[in-house]
Amino acid sequence: MHFIVNITSKLSGSGTTIFTVMSKMAQDFGAINLSQGFPDFDGPLELREAVARHIGSGHNQYAPLAGVSGLLEQIAIKVGALYGYTANPERQVVVTPGATEAIYCALTATIHPGDEVIVFDPAYDTYEPGIRLNGGVARRVPLCAPDFRIDWQRVRDVVTDRTRMIMLNSPHNPTGAVLGEQDIEALREISSRHDILLLSDEVYEHLVFDHREHLSLLRYPDLAERSFCVFSFGKTYHVTGWRIGYCVAPPLLTEAFLGIHQFINFSTNTPLQYALADFLRERPGYHLELAGFYQRKRDLFRDLLASSPFRLLPSPGTFFQLADYSRVSDLPDREFAAWLTREHGVAVIPISVFYENPPEQRIIRFCFAKNEATLRDAAERLAAIPGR
Ligand code: GLN
Description:
Elements: H1 18-29, E1 32-33, H2 45-56, H3 69-83, H4 89-92, E2 93-96, H5 99-110, E3 116-121, H6 127-133, E4 137-142, H7 152-158, E5 163-169, H8 181-194, E6 197-201, H9 221-224, E7 227-232, H10 233-236, E8 245-248, H11 251-264, H12 270-282, H13 290-305, E9 311-312, E10 320-324, H14 333-344, E11 346-347, E12 349-350, E13 363-367, H15 372-383
The protein binds glutamine.
């Protein structure tokens, strides 16, 4: 018998995420993979051993819906110490299988058909599908070159009575831009005047450089009361494959969030939660070292490329470095990324994929979350490419 099954996916047309495309291409061509953002080194040994210990000691059944209480408590202590935010661990914190699931739950809990969500252009590639799947409409506001600042007047211009939410992401993927106090002031004014929810993707919270501070929305009680703030253990502990993050939000928002989370994942990996709770308790200062650690990598990578034909843009945060390649090639960025992978053995991310309206520019994204040897090897290949 022969069946012909016809479906139209609700996301038809969005294709495969660029991270999968480029990491596969890196593998196929044996290239150094500076595309998808993940470290090529392991997280702390104690943390990895703690997971094994908890698997060995029988922490292998479902965790409670919101998370293991010891971890919820440690998260509340952490956001209290870092951002001065008092979170009730039982009512305001949810541990999720990655920040991506948290973003999806926050959108699904709040966005109804026809609701508008303000998203900056460029934006990380999961935001818009999450909005669309819930019947929402993403309203893109372009970030301003060359430093990818937010033009708040343009935000005001797109606010309507259907605007339900603004999605923020600082430090910003793919540009590395970070929010400043003036951004916070503008956000305060707009969100309170129009009663808008905020979804703040802060997975790179610890990767802010040059002595700047991360301005979590949790620092500002008037913003925190309307925000879902999303964080990542994968980024902080160099374990992106563990898929574990968390969301901090006021009790009513958390309740709505849990209403969705219970039917998507129910709960999150149990032994990982016990291990993270131990690690946070025993090494509460670990994340304070991260900015210095990654800033050294950023500076090394930038020094190594200083005499290459790539023009490096500022990277005030994240583990990404943008580079303008107009002195190397006229190819559009997707083709350029494929060419660089194939011909020079370095895989990168073309940033046009993060835009609704990509501007005329030739910019790619490197991930510098790599061992020094990897960065040196990649930079040597890149510096050998002739400029025009
Ligand atoms: N956040 C990572 C990046 O920007 C990728 C995560 C993923 O592959 N889904 O590269």
